[in-house]
Structures are given as structure tokens and as C-alpha cells.
Amino acid sequence: MIGHKEFDVVVIGGGHAGCEAAAAAARVGARTALVTQRKDTIGEMSCNPSIGGIGKGHLVREVDALGGLMGLAIDRGGIHFRMLNRRKGQAVWGPRAQADRDLYKAAIFELVGEIPNLEIIEDSALDVELEGSVVRGVRLGRETLTCSAAVITTGTFLRGRCYVGHESYEAGRHVRNSEIVEPPSNALAKLLEETLGLPLARLKTGTPPRLDGRTIDWDRCVVQPSEEPFAFSSYGPPASNPLIRCHRTATNPRTHEIVVANAHTLAAPSTTGVGPRYCPSLYKKVERFDRPSHGVWLEPEGLGTHVVYPNGLSGAFPLEVQRQIVASIRGLERAEILQAGYDVEYDFVDPRSLDHCLGVRAAPGLYLAGQICGTTGYEEAAALGVIAGANAGLSALGRDRFVLSRRDGYAGVLVDDLVSRGTREPYRMFTSRAEYRLSLRADNADLRLTPRAFEVGLVGDDRAEACARRQRCVDDGLRRLDRLRFRAADWYRHVPFAPDDDRTGKKAARGVVKSAAEMLAMPNADLASVERAANTLSDDDQGGVVAAEARDTVAAVCKYRAYLDRFDKEFDVYRRNEQLFLPPDLDYDPKALPALSAEELEKLRAHRPKTFADASNIAGITPASLVYLYNHVVTRTPPRRRRKQHHNG
Amino acid sequence: MGAVRRAWRMSSSSSLSSSSDTIFALSSGRGVAGVAVVRISGPGAVGALEALTPGCRLPATRYAAVRRLRHQERVLDEALVLRFAGPASFTGEDVVELHCHGGPATVDGVLSALSQLPRLRPAERGEFTRRAFAAGKLGVTQVEGLADLLAASTSRQRDQALRVMDGALEREYGAWRSELAGIRAAAEAAIDFGDEMEGEVDAAATLGPLEARARRLRRALARALGVADRCQAVRDGARVVLAGPPNAGKSSLVNLLAARPAAIVSDVAGTTRDVLEVRLNLAGFEVKLYDTAGIRDAADGLEAEGIRRAREACDAAHLVCYVIDAGNYYWGTDFLSPQNNNNNNNNNKLDLVVLNKVDLIEDNDAMSTILSRLRTDLGTDLPIVTTTAIQPDGADALLAAIETHLVDRWDAADHDDAPTVVRERHRRHVQACLDALDSALLQSEPELFAEDLRLATLEIGKLVGAIDVEDVLDSLFRDFCIGK
């Protein structure tokens, strides 16, 4: 009996964060338990039925590169695909797929089940047992599990309260296609707030009503077909499910009149609660923007269901008002609501109480991931889950921590933003949050992160080898493109993107020679045309210059090379000198260091870091500031003196 | 690592300026003066005032009151006291000012009494300003303006520093900054939401108007750089160089202008081997007048070095005055000769010709001959002034000419009065920002356009403090309806 109750890591919650956390902890070698109120909700998509998007797609690719589940699951459950931003550069492409909810959930359940060391326990987590402030176990309804690390991933359940109109009830979420609501986690809120003294605050989110697809007049809507399926995982095939079609309709002035006339039927959290700004409720959109119409996307929830998710219609009005709103919209005049839309208001922990491993600073062994840290979105939750789970596992096993920096990936940006700056609204990933956006692309997530994941055991030999193989293909492709050199004038005769302005023309006339890689940096260039041109210009047929699995990455590297080189140079100089000593008498004064914020200066004055590496460990000091500080110190101190200090250190 | 950091914190705790301390300092200059102002800032400021004025009512905030300052039963002074309640004060904290009598004994008595109060300590250098900055009371450039004001020695320096401290740069840069954030937000919106936003925004359609905005901003930056020269000259002083062949009397002129023996003067050619600097106040400009080594071809090692420095000084000068000996008319063969000057291929500009030692010219005819020869040699209508070092007012014409030159150059009506780019640091960042905008305007891909804007933003951030991505997102959410 005792044997069943001992684990290294216990993960509380079976959502996107919880599943990834449990899987990551188990993969690094920790005996792990995943505790969930209901086994049948593991891997549930509680809100929209889609994965990925701009910025979010990057996170899915990174979760996959770290050995996570989300990429593989959407590759099994995807039924509608779109590469957002395809007309823009590759750094900002956003792979997005809609899932069949049941297929997606089944895939997650199956993937979790395949992991050795991982046990699913269906029970309610009541409390985390502490010895002093150190985690010793998790108390469930029926038993107590001992463990040295615990990950709380309770999503919207922390003192969750659902709203439909003025009616409200304690609940973390509605169970899909049923009348059942799941109870909130009030005991855990108490533990975090009262026992550990962590700062908690409220956030709000909402979900639209679900419609019966058989009652929608599809002909009155604009069809949006799927693209050819593509794979999210670097290590598996794309989805092979049948594809569905989505449709688009829109609200109109009549809809907005109903919204305005019924504003008083919304409860306070639905109008003034802090919700995600990028995904406002219909009420917020009508209130803030003077527009006659807002888009509504009709997304079928699966292959074998009539349920349709009307994206863009969230608003927790009383059911009768929701009916009027739906009926006012073109194509939805006779549509029936299967489940009312509702809002959830819940507690989150100020993530500044966490470290870069997502560990609660005040309670060694306790980790948080997902919405409880103030984020919104499945992908953000999954990425946090991997980081928290891996670190919980590593700490339980007494091994070194696993931290990703802002240079490493969006996951690093996500964690760093949260723990060093906190958030006042549900935090969503945007590509604009990543200062190294041009190097942190979806196409190279595996190359960036899989080797790191392998070091700590998050992925096995097979993935590490596959990744190394692809890296060789990329290197080889780049080398060949660098060596293929012809006169610019010759290139221009054979590529469709030849520039027509005078300056380039003159250069070409002077006989300037360009490599294929340089050609790819030109606006609108594409790899296939460059290869074709190279084959025409070469005496011997070059064949495909770049291997299929390296093409996206090679094209992106060539396009962004000038910028990537600048990042690298900027950062390498700094990296090489990370152990360089900061002068102990350095004056962290706004006059001397005007580029640093008052907050950063205050932190530097308080910590007085000894080296740059120390400075980079202070929460809230950005990489840009470190580089600036480095330049300041270097220009301030003559080189000889610095070397001496370095040596003495 | 953690241990290292902890150790540091402990070892530096004595000098660590925790903002919960209350600090005090003599805020007016040291030495005998009519009034000396002692400033106290921090949570204990009011308590300190109460301790020094036992039994007296606290003055209302922002009203002056006369109080007898006492310490341990002794009367220290009768002073005017002022109290400001935070955050409406210079530092954002509670502030007390004691306007004491200015004698050193009085001041020392007050300072020593304050230092004996619990949790009060003398302020570190610049600490009041630092606290004001930390409390968001002053922007970076305002802190710089304050520093400039404290160092100002001419009226123009003072005026400019006051305007900077008053936030002239902060406002100008702030406007650029918010425009840049706005452009960036629109570009980022096209990237992060282009395919999700209502009505599907086409990248090309988005970039067009943004490029127009970027071009407008670029023009504003270019205009600012156009007057950078003047603002920097006001702050750092106008550099005026006296150059010319050896023994033309440059050092004597400098001595006369400075009315003190600043340079060694002898009648052996080539005495001045270094560049000597004298500061003058002309028309409110601080003028740094440089006396340089006489320039000639044949020169020994040390003298050659002096000549090299003289050339450098000319390169960096705002105004080069070429001094020649009226009695020994000689242009030399060097780089400042009129022939070379006409080539215009370097910075060795010649702004003014000084015909020195005119006392040696016997009569007006001889003078006319020399002047016309000089005019012919010059081949331009460059101003010529005549000077002599043997009369006290012998160099007044030179002074007047320098003054006219500075005023003409930097006081013209088309100059907007507002300072824009005061320090070299400002110029560097504005230039880098402008370069980034130029690069952005060449891009056809939105993410590269945005990348260049990000770099431009970093540069502006270095001027006024970092721009957070949240600023960009705020602007984005204010202006765009994100649908899905």
C-alpha cells in the first residue's frame, strides 16, 4: 500500500499544463502521479477547438522539440489547417489547426498512458503538505501521496466562479455536452494565499455558446476551406483525418443594439473583470469600437458531431439574450444553442513569486503552471507545463535545473516575462514579445531546443539523432548555397524576383558576383527558383541543392542572415565576457546608464552583481540592458585593468 | 552564484543606499554665504524637523516659517524652514529645507545635529537626484539638464539647461517615442493579427501608410540633428582655434583676450608646443579659445607633435582664425594656406583671418598694400580683422568678429529655440535611430520593417529610458479591434 503512495512528483490537474508537466517530470526520470478530478477530462479543450496560431504555433513547436505532447496530439486530431501569415516572412508564420475534440483528447490520453513512470489518479487534491515550507506530499480526498515536488496546474479552478447573466455559481468549468459543472479548488487557494502568503488576484475569461450545426444556414456564410495538412511535430507525420470546412459570418448593427440594450443583464465580472484584451467579449468589442460589424467564425468541433463553436461571440448574457444575439446574425437566424456561453472568474498567483523554473520561491518543491500563473491559451499552458514539470522532476531527483532564456525560445520569453514582470491581464504570446524573433522561428524549434532537451533526458536518443541529422542537412544546404556563385546579371535573367531598380541593375552590369545564399536574401526570393536558376547556370546539374527536411530552415537563415549575424555578434561578445567582473565601484546612476530603467538600476544597486553572469540572473534585467551595461563597462574601464581584474577573479 | 551575490550584498550594505533611509546634505555651495540651504529627504524628514524645533508647531506644507533650530538645549540658528509632503516634492519623498545663515560654523552645527538623529545619514553624491529619478519625478534627460544647470557658466548654457531640465528634450523625445511605438504597434498588429484581424489586413496595404509615418519621423530626427551642432556648442562650448605660422603672435593675442598670462610667450619661433585653452564668455556662449603651435614644415620631433595637435584642433574647431604677422607677411606652405583651403577636401576650413602686429606697420599706405595683397592671396571675401597685442583693446576687433560669427551661425531666426540634441550621447542615439528608420524604409517584408523599427526603438529607449513591449501592445490594443 505504501508503495502506491510514494512518488517523486505529483501533478495536480489534467489540462494542457498538467499533462505536459506530468509527462515532462516522468520523462526526466521522476516517478510521477497525475491527479485529476475526472479521468475523462484529461486533454479536454475547454474553450476553442484549435491549437496554434501566430506566436502560439511557435510554442507548440517548442513544446514538441522539448519532447512534449501537444504537437503529436494535434497531428493526430487536426481536421482543418491554416498557416497564418504565409504571405509574410517565415519568422512570423503561425501554424494553426482545428481539432476534433474527441480525437485530440484521445491522443493526449493515449500519449500520457504510454509514458513509463506516470500514473493517473482520479481524486480531488485537497492540500499540499509542507514540512516548514518544503513540499512533502499531496493530500487527496481518499489518500495522501508523498512526494518531494508538486506542480499545481488548476487552470481556472482556483476559487473559480462561473457567470451566466447575473446568475453565478462556484465552478471551475462546465463539462462538455452535459449539465455537469466541476467544483473549484478552494482549499488550494487557501494554501497559496494564507499558508504561503502569495499574492493572488482575479482574472476573467469567457467562452461562447455552442451551436447545433444542423440548424445553421451554411449557404449564407463565407466558406473557409482547410489547407493541405502540415505536421506540428518534427518527429511524426501530419494528420491524416478527413478535413472539414469552416465558415465566416459577422455581427451587424441589430446585433449590437441587442448587446447594448442588454448590457445591464451582465454581472460585474463580465463587464469590468480583467479578461484577455486580444480576445474581447462581444460586449467589450461593441463598447470599445465604433464599427457596424465584427467577424464570427463558425468552427465545427469535430468530425462526428454537430456542435459548432462560434468564434468571436463570447458574452455571458442570460440564455434568452444569447438566443437573440445569435438569431440576429446572418446564417444563424434559426440556429439552436446547445450550451450557453459563460464567463469564469478565477484566482491567479502573481507569477513574480516564481523563479525561472516556475518554482514558488517561498516553498521549495512547489511549482505552478498554466492559467494559475496568469496566462491564457492552451499553448502557453503547455509550454509552462513542460518547464515546471521538468524542473519538478529534476529537483526531486536532485539534479540541475532546466532554464530557457529569451534567446532560446518563446518558452523562455514566456517564463521570463511572467516571473520578472508579472502580468495584469491574461498573458498571451505574441511574436512581438520575442526580441530575437528572427532567430526564434517555428521551423528551427527542434534545432534550438531538442539538444537541450536531450541533455536533461526530456527526449531520448532517437529524437536527438533525428535532430542532429536535420542539423547536418541544414549546414550542408547552407554550405552548398554559399558556394554556388554566379554573376548577378546571370542570376537576374533566370529568377522571377529580379530587382528592376537602377542601382541593382548597375551593380549587376559591373559584374558583381552573388552566391545563391545572397540571392535568397532578396525580397520575394524563394528557394525553388534559386535552385532552378543555379541548375540552368551550372555546367553540371546540381539536382536539389537543399534536402527536403532542411528547406524551410535554410531559406529562413539566408533571408535573415544579416540580422541573425548581428544578434550573434552582439550576444557572443557579451557571452564570452559573461564571467567578466563588474567593477565593484560601478555607479548605477541614471546619468551614467540612461538606457536602464529606474527599476533596473534600483535592482542593480540592491544586488551589486559581481559578474555579468550574476547580473543576468537578477529578475527583470533584460538582455538588451545587459549588452548596454557591458558596453558601458568596456568603454569606461581601460582594457588592461579589466584583464587584470578578470585574472584576479 | 547565490552565495556570491549574498556576500556582495552583505559587504556592500554599508554603502547601499536603501531608499527607506532619510538623507540630508548642504544643497547650496560651501563657503561663506548669506544663506545656506540644508535639504532633508525621506520618511524621517518631518521627524528631523520636529527634533530640531522642539515645542514648535510644524509649518504648513509649502509655506515658509521662521523657526529657531535647537540641538541638545543649544540654539543652532534662526532659520527659514519649508516642508514638502511626498509625493509632491523634488524627490517624491517628504522633504524639509532649512534655509540657515550661511556661516560655516552655523552650517556645520546644523549638519552635525542632523547626523546625530537616528536613521539620518548624509546623502551620497547625486542621491537626491537619483531618488527623484527613481520616483519618476525626473526623466533621464531632465537629470542631465540638472547636471548641466549646476555646471552652467554662461547665460546660454543656463537657459538651455533650464529648458532641458524643464523637460524640453523629454517632451520632444517622448513625442518621437510614442510615434515610434505607434508605428511599431501597427506593424506588429499586421504581423501578430494580420491574418486574424477583422477584414484581413493586407501587409502591403498596412506598410504603405506606416512608411509615410516613418518618413515623417525621420524628417523630424534629421531636423533635430541639424541643430545638434548649436545645442552641443552651447553646452560644451564653442571651439575657436587660433592657428597660423610660428611667431605670428597667437599666444600674445590669447593672453590679451584672457587678460591673464595663460600661454608662455617668447619671441623664439615655435615656443607653443601644445594646445592651450582659454575660456571666454561671448554673447552668452562659452568660448573655448585654443592657442596652437605655429605651423611650419621644418620642425623637430616635439614641435612636429605640437603641429599635429594643432591640426587636430583645427579639424575639431567650430571656428578657425588664422593669424599672420603683418610685419612679416608669410602664409607658410602648410595646409591652411589659401590654396589648400580652396580645395575644400578636408575640414581645414578657414573662417577668419587675423592680421596681427599691425602696430609694426608704419602708415596707412603700407597697410592698404598689405590688405590688398592679402585679399588677392585669399581670393575670397573672408573677413579680415587687424589686431595688436601691445594695446589693451588691441584684440577687441577679433573678439567682436568671433562673437558675430557665433551669433550668425547659431542665433539665426530659422532655428527653433527648443534644444533637441544637447549631448554627444543624444546625437549618437538620434543618428542611430535615423539610420534604423532608413533601413526600415528599404524593407519590403513586414517582419524586417518591424525589426528595424525595434532597433530604432531601442535607440530612442536609450535616450529616455527603455520602451517596453507593453507600450507597443497597449498602443496596439487601443487602436485595433482584434476579432478572433
UniProtKB/TrEMBL annotation, chain A:
Query: Which InterPro entries has this protein been placed in?
Result: FAD/NAD-bd_sf (IPR036188), MnmG (IPR004416), MnmG-rel (IPR002218), MnmG_C (IPR026904), MnmG_C_subdom (IPR047001), MnmG_C_subdom_sf (IPR044920), MnmG_N (IPR040131)
Domain of life the protein comes from: Eukaryota
Which cofactor does this sequence's record say it needs? FAD
- CC terms in the record's Gene Ontology section: cytoplasm
SMART domains noted in UniProt: GIDA_assoc_3
Record keywords, A-Z: FAD, Flavoprotein
Extract the PANTHER family matched here. GLUCOSE INHIBITED DIVISION PROTEIN A (PTHR11806), PROTEIN MTO1 HOMOLOG, MITOCHONDRIAL (PTHR11806:SF0)
- Return the protein name: tRNA uridine 5-carboxymethylaminomethyl modification enzyme C-terminal subdomain domain-containing protein
TrEMBL record, chain B:
Span of domain MnmE helical: 141-481
Q: Cite the source lineage.
A: Eukaryota, Sar, Stramenopiles, Ochrophyta, Pelagophyceae
GO molecular-function term, one example from the UniProt record: GTP binding
Give the protein name, as stated in the record. Answer: tRNA modification GTPase
G domain: from which residue to which, for each copy?
Answer: 239-357
The cross-references to SUPFAM superfamilies, in alphabetical order and at most eight, read: P-loop containing nucleoside triphosphate hydrolases
> Which keywords, in A-to-Z order, does the entry hold?
GTP-binding, Nucleotide-binding, tRNA processing
Q: Which residues form the GTP-binding protein TrmE N-terminal domain?
A: 22-137
Entry's localization field: Mitochondrion
| Species this chain originates from | Chrysophaeum taylorii
Similarity section: Belongs to the TRAFAC class TrmE-Era-EngA-EngB-Septin-like GTPase superfamily. TrmE GTPase family.
Asked whether the keyword GTP-binding is assigned, the reply is yes
